[in-house]
Design goal:
Elements (H helix, E strand, L loop, with lengths): L1 H4 L1 H14 L2 H7 L12 H11 L1 H10 L8 H7 L11 H11 L4 H4 E4 L5 E2 L3 E8 L4 E7 L3 H19 L3 H5 L2 H15 L2 H14 L11 E3 L11 E5 L3 E3 L14 H23 L1 E3 L7 E4 L4 E3 L5 E3 L2 H15 L3 H11 L8 H13 L11 H14 L7 H19 L5 H18 L3 H31 L12 H33 L4 H28 L4
Parallel strand pairs: 5-10
Antiparallel strand pairs: 1-3, 2-3, 3-4, 4-6, 7-9, 8-11, 9-10
């Protein structure tokens, strides 16, 4: 159905593909010989997505969060995608705002700047002032964007259904990517979802044992004015992180010292999100990190978030230590624990791949190691070994990569491992003792007491069963039934062969010594029975296909 409904869009896609020179699709669409399908080069793929429009730019941004599927070259290229588009006219935006407000616009806002401060593919943001004087930011959904997105989603899902039937589609998990993209895009159309994420992040970061929460800001949401198509939040006055001029600050701090403090603040805030809260801002690129006029740091745009369950957090914490120790064997074991499915994996090959990957870092100073690059390489090795990892591993790796990249640009003197070493130590302490060490020690003592009371009785029961010969072992061997049937078949055929041979030999002996016609007749009967049994045996062997 989608093919007939989206013919104009299909034609446009084909034109874009041909114009950008994707060799495989060019041969396929022009009737030439099509080799094994391959993705276009990173630059060509980016150009195709940009030419196809905002929805496909969003798809590229999603793909940039999946280093578990794509190589580093694709991730780096797609990470530069920005969905900056021309703004919608104020008259159209005003109509949307009025429809979303419960009260007249004039009774809600004293002023609204008709010129947007930012315009994206789904929404644009305006600065406004409430009637009570508070400065706010209005994020307004573009008129008609929901209809456009629904049409493109139908087309993408239809194409994914077709491509998923090929080896190419299965290799790159086209179906799962399309489903993930569809859910993410539909969720972006509901601003109450982003508002909820913002509130949760704000609550989580309002307390910490690693940093001063007053130095980190997440905008307050005005829920009485927020709807699915209108997000109203606190206005934060500042500049993008990397544009900050610390030399002109008013707090009297040395710029180098302040850069170090801000870098430490960011690492500690994001490590808390990743390894303690399990709920993290998944898009910390320079445009979403603001340096405010009062010297604080703000996190903006909580539309893309990630989640990690406690088990995954523990595995990833151990992975940090394995990377620091360059322990290939432990990296392999932890990767298998993270795997989505229990598909067979050759552990020795996985360990060897990790060993080759980590070997190049053995003589490199810790200060020179790019930690996020190692995470990407670990995901690449897992992908090469056909290990399917959860999609949130891509968001996790992308978040760390963005964080480290911004931090190194902002503070060239950054020593990554000096920043994370105390955090890793505290994380392991928390895993061993928990948030309440006394309670954890008491629980452990109770477990030891219970074990000490139960163990003698259990040992006594075991010894009693052994001495009384009542101990039974239940073993389950896979494939044993098939082996038994095969051996039974072989034994039956061997028995028939012996029987046929015996009948033939008996008939031959009787024939040589036959004195009467009755004995000669018996000999003929034995030969006939032996022939029939032999013929049946040959036919059964031929029908089983196991003649060889």
């Amino acid at each position: 159905m989608f093919l007939t409904q989206t013919v104009p869009r299909q034609r446009e896609i084909i034109e874009v593909v041909l114009r950008n020179g994707w060799d495989y699709m060019r041969r396929l669409l022009t009737g030439g010989k099509a080799d094994e399908p391959q993705l276009p080069t990173p630059a060509v793929l980016k150009n195709i997505l940009v030419d196809l429009g905002p929805v496909y730019v969003k798809l590229g941004q999603l793909l940039s969060t999946r280093p578990d599927l794509l190589s580093a070259a694709y991730i780096e290229e797609l990470s530069t995608l920005q969905d900056e588009v021309p703004p919608v006219s104020w008259s159209d935006v005003e109509v949307v705002i009025r429809k979303q407000l419960k009260r007249p616009l004039e009774e809600t806002f004293s002023t609204i700047n008709p010129v947007p401060v930012a315009a994206g593919s789904i929404a644009q943001t305006h600065r406004a002032t409430l009637v009570d004087g508070r400065e706010v930011a209005l994020k307004v959904q573009r008129p008609g964007i929901d209809v456009t997105i629904a049409q493109d989603i139908a087309l993408i899902q239809g194409i994914a259904d077709l491509v998923a039937r090929t080896d190419f589609g299965q290799t790159y998990e086209i179906k799962s990517i399309a489903e993930e993209f569809t859910k993410a895009l539909e969720a972006e159309l509901d601003f109450t979802r982003e508002a909820g994420f913002t509130d949760q992040l704000r609550r989580n970061l309002s307390r910490s044992r690693w940093f001063d929460p007053t130095q980190l800001v997440v905008a307050e949401i005005y829920w009485d004015l927020t709807t699915e198509k209108l997000l109203v939040m606190e206005w934060l006055d500042g500049v993008p992180f990397l544009s900050a001029d610390l030399n002109s600050n008013q707090n009297g701090k040395d710029p180098a010292v302040e850069r170090k403090e801000i870098t430490t603040l960011l690492f500690r805030a994001f490590f808390q999100q990743l390894y303690i809260d399990g709920f993290f801002h998944a898009d910390p690129h320079p445009g979403n990190l603001f340096y405010l006029q009062d010297g604080r740091v703000a996190l903006l745009d909580c539309g893309m978030v990630g989640r990690l369950d406690p088990r995954t957090q523990q595995i990833l914490t151990e992975m940090l230590l394995a990377i620091v120790d360059l322990d290939a064997g432990r990296c392999a074991q932890l990767t298998l624990q993270l795997a989505d499915s229990a598909q067979p994996v050759i552990l020795s090959r996985l360990e060897n791949d990790y060993d080759r990957m980590l070997r190049k870092y053995h003589n490199v100073s810790l200060t020179e190691i790019n930690f996020s690059q190692i995470i990407y390489e670990i995901l690449q090795v897992a992908r090469n070994n056909k290990i399917r990892l959860p999609s949130n591993m891509g968001l996790y790796a992308k978040t760390l990569a963005n964080l480290e990249g911004v931090a190194r640009t902002f503070n060239p003197e950054l020593n990554f491992f000096d920043e994370v070493k105390p955090l890793i130590t505290d994380l392991f302490r928390r895993q061993l003792l928990g948030d309440n060490p006394v309670r954890s020690l008491l629980r452990t003592a109770l477990d030891i007491k219970s074990l000490s009371l139960q163990s003698p009785r259990q040992i006594e029961l075991l010894l009693d069963r052994v001495t009384s010969e009542t101990l039974q072992w239940n073993l389950s061997l896979r494939g044993l039934d098939g082996m038994r049937r095969t051996m039974d078949d072989a034994a039956n055929r061997l028995s028939f062969s012996i029987l046929v041979g015996s009948l033939i030999m008996g008939a031959a002996i009787i024939t040589t010594k036959a004195q009467t016609s009755q004995i000669s007749f018996l000999s003929s009967v034995l030969f006939a029975v032996a022939s029939l049994l032999g013929l049946w045996l040959i036919i059964s062997i031929l029908r089983s296909g196991r003649l060889r």
